[in-house]
Amino acid sequence: MAEPTAARPRVRVKASVLGAVRDRVAAGGLRTVCEGALCPNRPECYAAGHLTLLILGDRCTRACRFCAVSGGPPEAPDPAEPGRIAEMVGALGMGHVVVTSVTRDDLPDGGAAHYEAVGRALAALPAPPTAEALVPDFGGDPAAVARVAGAAYRLLAHNVETVPRLYPRVRPQAVYRRSLEVLATLGRAGGGRPVKSGLMLGLGETGAEVRAVLEDLRRVGVAAVTLGQYLQPTAGQLAPVRRVPAEEFAGWAETARALGFRSVVAGPLVRSSYRARLALESFASGGGA
């Protein structure tokens, strides 16, 4: 399902709905990427019953130059967090939840057990949402990756973010080939569940490099992909090299479909969790991208 690259109509959501989500998140001592990143798609996602949660604290052990998450010594994982997440999701009646996290290189398993506990808590709800695990690379530990892949998530995801040439500037502590292996492991250990990845454009990549990444993703079994414009979170992060025109995103969507991706979402405001449930629906229906 390709994201229309023309301007999307603005989704109007009652202030009470936005406030209810914020209040419940705050009351549970929880965090969302939606609010933390001031995502432009919040109204549309909240109206659709979608939410992206940030687990394992708000301090990252890495320093990716596109991300505004704080660094510094992280806190110990909160064993009560999975239960609070389930309580909030149930109270809000959310239909689809993306679970992601900061990178926790300080933990022996990178936080994989915590992902597993969150997935278990969501699955135990009387009306469980569909859930996606959007994971870091766990330092390349295949056991940690496989543990999340075996947990109660319907969609498994890890973002390569950019082309390999730009990793030293954009993701200096990450390794492109390691991310590809994480995606391959998610596929092998996931029991047939779809695997997704995402790319940011506008950081100085070439067209040939983007196509090569898409080919690599298909080669390791990725079946769903998102492509969006990189937007600078604050003055402290990398500035975009260029704004990618909407018609270029349309072209990449066509290229991705031709390469065999079953689900494609591409457009200037697309983020990796945008329309995440539609990817699942495309697999459930057996339809193409």
Order of helices and strands: HHHEHEHEHEHHEHEHEH
- Rounded radius of gyration (Å): 18 Å
Mean pLDDT over all positions: 87
The biggest sheet amounts to: 7 strands, parallel
Approximately how much beta-strand content do the residues carry?
Answer: 5-15%
- The secondary-structure class comes to alpha/beta
What is the topology, as strand order, of the major beta sheet? 1-2-3-4-5-6-7
* General form: globular
Alpha carbon gap, first and last residue: 4 Å
The count of helical stretches stands at 11
Q: Roughly how much helix do the residues carry, as a percent range?
A: 25-40%
Number of strands: 7
Q: Outline the low-pLDDT stretches.
A: 1-13
What attributes characterize this protein structure?
11 helices; 13% strand; 289 residues; disordered N terminus; alpha/beta; 7-stranded parallel beta sheet
Walkthrough of the structure:
With 289 residues, this protein is α/β, with parallel strands linked by helices. Helices cover 38% and strands 13% of the residues. The protein is built from 11 helices and 7 strands. The chain has a 7-stranded parallel β-sheet, with helices on both faces. Helix 5 links the parallel strand 2 and strand 3 (130-134). Helix 4 runs parallel beside helix 5 (112-123) and helix 9 (207-219) packs parallel to helix 10. The N and C termini lie close together (4 Å). The model is unreliable at 1-13 (pLDDT under 50).
